[in-house]
Amino acid sequence: MKHIRCVTGTIVLLLAWSGIALAAPSLGSIDGQMGNSEWYGLETIEYGHSDGHDYDVERLGLMIDDNMLYLGIQTDYQLDGGWRTNSWEYRKDEYGVTQSYGNYYIDPGDFAFDFNGDGSFEAGIDFQMTDSGVTFTFFELNDPGDWQRSVTHPENSPYTAYVEDYKNSQTSGDGPDNFEAVIAYTDDNNRNPGDVLEAAINLDTLSDSLSQLFRGTDRTLNLYWTMECGNDGLLVAERYTYNPANPVPEPSTMVLLGLGVLGLSRIRRRR
Asked: Would you say the pTM of this structure is higher than 0.85?
């Protein structure tokens, strides 16, 4: 894949600690808009907050409330991919979509999660966009060092992780093996205010291994995002407590429960 050099830029690493907010994200507010009152005190904002630059990340928000994780991003980078000029279509790859510029393509990055506050990003979210909607894949890495570095500005890393480096992963959806997520996306081709991706994730529906990453009292979580070239990126921090009341049952318990339900089903059929 060819890579185009992004407009020169520097990363902004400002911490936005959760405080008293005018409002806060909720399931009903996940609308792909990232309103000011909704995210006030829960986000990092790009210095200058100027719209219209192809590779600027304008806003990054993060909040954990009880069992819900809320995140939002606003960027002038086109999250759903750019036009391929020779065929007038979006270009997509196995990791989602890419932005095009002539015959060059810039991939979107993954949301990177640092659970220790030490700069080692143990997990992330890869998003895939299709005509039917947006899907998240939540993953834990075999090693925090498995992240790929940004191409043009490697100092603004991490950028993405490859599937073969996943230790555990789970996809959003309605199935029994999926985690629950409400995801909203606004495609702004005019870059004013920019593309917005918002989501609410039910942490109680994550697999036990992924849920364990979040559990604890008075913890700090860092969320970071940049694109392939690393022209611009934002990091936001959240201090939170998450102790699920009903942790995911051990496999043996679930098997026994399943056998019990199966037995009752057979008894009813015989009747």
From this structure: no
Quote the tokens at residue 231: 């022209």
192 contacts: CB under 8 Å, gap ≥ 6: 51, 52
Quote the CA–CA distance of 95 and 197 in Å, as a whole number. Answer: 17
H/E run at residue 215:
none
The token duo for 249 is: 């049952």
Tokens of 136: 């998240």
Tokens 């995801």 label which residue? 183
Tokens of 239: 């201090």
**pLDDT tens by residue, the chain, 271 residues:** 333 334 433 333 333 333 333 467 788 788 888 777 778 778 887 655 455 566 778 889 999 998 999 999 998 877 876 444 444 444 444 334 444 444 556 778 899 999 988 888 999 999 988 778 899 999 999 999 889 888 888 887 898 998 999 999 999 999 999 999 999 998 876 666 778 999 999 999 999 999 999 999 999 999 999 888 877 789 999 999 999 976 555 444 444 444 443 343 333 333 3
Cα–Cα distances (Å) from 192 to 33, 75, 109, 177, 255, in that order, read 12, 9, 21, 38, 52
Cα-based distances in Å from 238 to 69, 140, 198: 10, 19, 16
Cβ contacts of 231 within 8 Å, gap of 6 or more: 6, 7, 8, 9, 55, 56, 152, 153, 156
Assign 261 to helix, strand or coil: helix
Q: Using CA atoms, how far apart are residues 201 and 136, in angstroms rounded to an integer? A: 10
Q: Collect all residues with Cβ–Cβ distance below 8 Å to 150 and sequence separation of at least 6.
A: 109, 156, 157, 158, 159, 226, 227, 228, 229, 230
